Amino acid sequence: MPQFPTIRHRRLRLNDRVRRLVRENHLSVNDLIYPVFATYGQGVRREVTSMPGVYNLSIDLLIEDLKNIEELGIPGIMVFGVPEQKDEVGSGAYDPEGIVQQAVRAIKKAYPEMLVITDVCLCEYTSHGHCGLIKGDTVENDTTLDLLAQTALSHVQAGADMVAPSDMMDGRVAAIRARLDAEGYTNVPIMAYSAKYASAYYGPFREAAGSTPQFGDRKTYQMDPANGDEALRETLQDIEEGADIVMVKPALAYMDIIRRVKDQFNYPVAAYNVSGEYSMVKAAAQLGWIDEKKIVLETLTGLKRAGADMLITYHAPEVANWLKEG
């Protein structure tokens, strides 16, 4: 192979137009999914203290805010619920009049074309804060599956376009797929949280959703951050059970996992740019230590380069505006 000075890589970096022509990865508004938190009441806009710019919103104000999301061309949102009451079995998760179900109906009425994805889990709704039913100090896997399937069905009946189980119970994708198919919802996709790690990056989200475990932790069902091969086994199982999109969560410290999942399965991959990743950038930007716009765009482009097809991020409205500005 010819060497320098015949080969000069800098020739293709000399100006912006040449760089644009040879750019390998492109960040687009079409890549974005925006997470939102719906809560009860009227006129409620409660900022999450550890996530500047992120709010728990009553449905009326959520509908108002989503007008901007629609106008920016962001394809979809992911809806999380913040209930008024919790119990041992997380009944608010699958209540037809639960907060997510009410929010979905209102969103689809106001914005029929908006892609509405719902998070399917019990943790926000259980008094103990775990993602499944409890027996003693153990999170029960098999008895939880029916409630997860019931939750997913109630979301779809309310109008959700896609469901995203985040609980990490074994077999939950198959249980949800079977329930949806049995009820005639064969065309509703499942976005599975396939490689979801027991991560310290979730702290601010737990404030937003009020989902901190009241005892123990989630290490018996979420993955060990030290493991990579296990992520491929988890992802393969979800695909075999009927997942249409697979997810890696968190994103920034797991770019190697995103790349491995994409290379191994060539399946649609979502990367969740989680609350802790968002909050670190916001905090450093507020102190003037970093250029927020440049850092966010570089990070999300890096996730695309790693193999992500879609990006779930709290930065979505800002990113959409930045991209619009050029």
UniProtKB/TrEMBL annotation:
Active site positions: 196, 249
EC primary class: lyase
Residue positions binding Zn(2+): 121, 123, 131
Binding site for 5-aminolevulinate 2: 275, 314
Enzyme Commission code: 4.2.1.24
Pfam families linked: ALAD (PF00490)
Cofactor(s) of this protein: Zn(2+)
Gene3D superfamilies named in the record: Aldolase class I (3.20.20.70)
GO cellular component: cytosol
Highest rank taxon of the organism: Bacteria
Keyword Magnesium tagged: yes
Pathway: Porphyrin-containing compound metabolism; protoporphyrin-IX biosynthesis; coproporphyrinogen-III from 5-aminolevulinate: step 1/4
Keyword flag Metal-binding: yes
Positions that bind 5-aminolevulinate 1: 206, 218
GO BP field: protoporphyrinogen IX biosynthetic process
Keywords: Heme biosynthesis, Lyase, Magnesium, Metal-binding, Porphyrin biosynthesis, Zinc
Similarity annotation: Belongs to the ALAD family.
Biological role stated in the UniProt entry: Catalyzes an early step in the biosynthesis of tetrapyrroles. Binds two molecules of 5-aminolevulinate per subunit, each at a distinct site, and catalyzes their condensation to form porphobilinogen.
Subunit structure comment from the entry: Homooctamer.
Xref: PANTHER family: DELTA-AMINOLEVULINIC ACID DEHYDRATASE
NCBIfam families: PRK09283.1
Protein name: Delta-aminolevulinic acid dehydratase
Provenance organism: Desulforamulus reducens (strain ATCC BAA-1160 / DSM 100696 / MI-1)
